[in-house]
């Protein structure tokens, strides 16, 4: 497989994972993934993002109840007992370097981390539903940092299925397999002049 084919495969096979194997991950691999976040595009190259990597087991367990999982199907999407994440990456924005596009920076950096992790066989769940008022004192995060997101990670214990459909709600089937719909190309792609169907 060529490099471009491999990269496209990584991008297209990536799915959010919410069931994990209780298997450790080398810290060096995680740091390589964070290094991919570090080199992401950044508006005005201000680089306002910093990261807190949490793998200490007691702390990982304390973070778990501060997160909300798979809102459309709750509580069916919650990680089951024995299938919790083995760690978290907490993504922080330095308020001194904040600008109107910092959320774009976070998106680019987080996606880099997620795709690098997937390339190593590591599953992730990007979580914005976080009890930030409880997470901050737990990790002793200074007030000058905004908590953007928490990325849960671990080796996958589920294989969600990509569907092409116009709906937005993901679902679990009778076998508890997660199905994730994405809108069809012909409903989101426009060529040149708006509303002219022909490619030109
Ligand atoms: C900004 C953002 C916030 C998200 N927050 C949550 C969250 O709080 N809890 C959760 O379980 N999933 C969360 N997700 C994951 C989405 O539910 C998931 O990406 C979506 O269902 C599509 O699935 P896919 O990632 O497999 O394509 C979030 C994703 C993004 C991009």
Structure in words:
The protein is an alpha+beta fold and 200 residues long. The chain has 2 domains: 157 residues, 3-Layer(aba) Sandwich (NADH Oxidase), CATH 3.40.109.10; 41 residues, putative fmn-dependent nitroreductase like fold. The chain contains 5 helices and 7 strands, in the order H-H-E-H-E-H-E-H-E-E-E-E. A 4-stranded antiparallel β-sheet has the order 1-2-4-3, with helices on both faces. It is globular and about 55 Å long. The mean pLDDT is 96.
Task: Enumerate the spans where pLDDT stays under 50 for 5 or more consecutive residues.
Answer: none
- Total strands: the figure is 7
Helix-strand category:
alpha+beta
Q: Any guess at the CATH architecture of the largest domain?
A: 3-Layer(aba) Sandwich
> What is the alpha-carbon Rg in Å?
18 Å
Quickly name the level 1 CATH class of the largest domain.
Answer: Alpha Beta
The rough form would be described as globular
| CATH topology title of the largest domain | NADH Oxidase
The set of bound ligands, ions and cofactors reads: flavin mononucleotide
Average pLDDT metric: 96
Q: What is the CATH homologous superfamily assignment of the largest domain?
A: NADH Oxidase
Spatial gap, N to C terminus? 31 Å
* Binned strand content: 15-25%
Give the SSE order as H and E letters. HHEHEHEHEEEE
**Structural domains: how many:** 2
Give the proportion of residues in helices.
Answer: 25-40%
Largest sheet: 4 strands, antiparallel
Strand order of the largest sheet: 1-2-4-3
Number of helices: 5
């Amino acid at each position: 497989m060529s490099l471009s084919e491999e990269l496209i495969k990584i991008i297209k096979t990536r799915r959010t994972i919410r069931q994990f194997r209780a298997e450790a991950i080398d810290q060096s691999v995680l740091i390589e993934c964070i290094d991919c976040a570090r080199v992401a595009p950044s508006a005005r190259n201000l680089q306002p993002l910093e990261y807190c990597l949490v793998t200490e087991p007691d702390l990982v367990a304390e973070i778990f109840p501060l997160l909300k999982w798979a809102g459309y199907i709750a509580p069916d999407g919650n990680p089951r007992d024995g299938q919790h994440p083995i760690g978290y990456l907490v993504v922080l924005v330095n308020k001194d370097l904040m600008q109107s596009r910092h959320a774009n920076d976070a998106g680019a950096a987080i996606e880099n981390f997620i795709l690098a992790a997937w390339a190593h066989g590591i599953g992730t769940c990007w979580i914005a539903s976080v009890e930030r008022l409880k997470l901050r004192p737990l990790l002793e995060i200074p007030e000058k940092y905004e908590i953007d997101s928490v990325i849960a990670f671990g080796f996958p214990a589920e294989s969600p299925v990509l569907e092409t459909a116009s709906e937005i709600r993901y679902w679990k089937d009778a076998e508890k397999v997660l199905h994730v719909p994405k809108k069809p190309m012909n409903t989101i792609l426009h060529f040149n002049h708006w509303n002219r169907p022909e490619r030109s």
